Amino acid sequence: MVSFLAEAYIFVLAVLAGFQVISKVPSILHTPLMSATNAIHGIILVGALLVVFSAHNSGVFWTALGAVLFATMNLVGGFVVTDRILGLFRTDGGGRSE
Amino acid sequence: MNGSALEQGFYMVAATLFVLGVRLMGSPARARMGNWFLAVGMVLALGITVVFVPHFDHMLVVLGVMGLGVVAGVWSGRRVRMTAMPQMVALFNGLGGGAAALVAAGSLPSVSHLTQWPALLTMVLGSLSFGGSAVAFMKLQEWISGRKYGGLWRGAGLAFLTLAVLWCLYAGVQARLDLMAGVTAMGGAALAGALLAWPIGGADMPVVISLLNALTGLSAAATGFVLQNPLLIIAGTLVGASGTILTQQMSRAMHRSLRSVIWGSHVGQTAMSTVPEAVHPITADDVAMMLRYARKVIIVPGYGLAVARAQLEVKQVSDLLEGFGVEVLFGIHPVAGRMPGHMNVLMAEANVSYDRLWEMERINPRFRETDVVLVIGANDVTNPAARTAAGSPLYGMPILNVDQAGTVIVLKRSMGRGFAGVDNPLYQDPKTRMLFGDAKNSLATLVRELEGIA
Question: Main role (chain B) (predicted)?
Answer without folding.
Answer: The transhydrogenation between NADH and NADP is coupled to respiration and ATP hydrolysis and functions as a proton pump across the membrane.
